[in-house]
Write a structure and sequence with these properties.
Layout (H helix, E strand, L loop, with lengths): L1 E4 L2 E6 L2 E6 L4 E7 L9 E3 L8 E9 L2 E8 L5 E6 L4 E7 L6
Parallel strand pairs: 4-5
Antiparallel strand pairs: 1-2, 2-3, 3-4, 6-7, 7-8, 8-9
């Protein structure tokens, strides 16, 4: 779990990230699949993790807030998200068996 700012905490559950606003008790889910097309709280992205997230980090670089995540599996995937726009900014597939 990490703090994005004084109003938000960031954590992961299985293959998704959850950005929780602690003031109004709302959540944005990064990398999930929408069950309802009108649901604004899920940022759908087909480039999400397909195995459990085992590590994550939050960093602010030059005023840009980034979330990095890594998954387990034979072909580990690292994703980097812009925490403010909720957009995926980079995707790295590691070689088979990399740790």
């Amino acid at each position: 779990m990490a703090f994005k700012d004084n109003d938000h905490i960031l954590f992961h559950n299985s293959t998704c990230f959850i950005l929780h606003n602690i003031n109004n008790n709302t959540q944005i889910i990064l990398g999930g699949n929408k069950l309802n097309e009108d649901d604004p709280n899920i940022v759908e992205n087909y480039k999400c993790h397909d195995n459990d997230i085992v590590c994550s980090s939050f960093i602010s670089v030059g005023g840009i807030n980034l979330i990095a995540s890594g998954q387990r599996g034979l072909l580990p995937l690292i994703l980097v998200w812009d925490a403010d726009t909720k957009k995926l900014v980079n995707k790295m597939l590691l070689p088979k068996g990399a740790k």
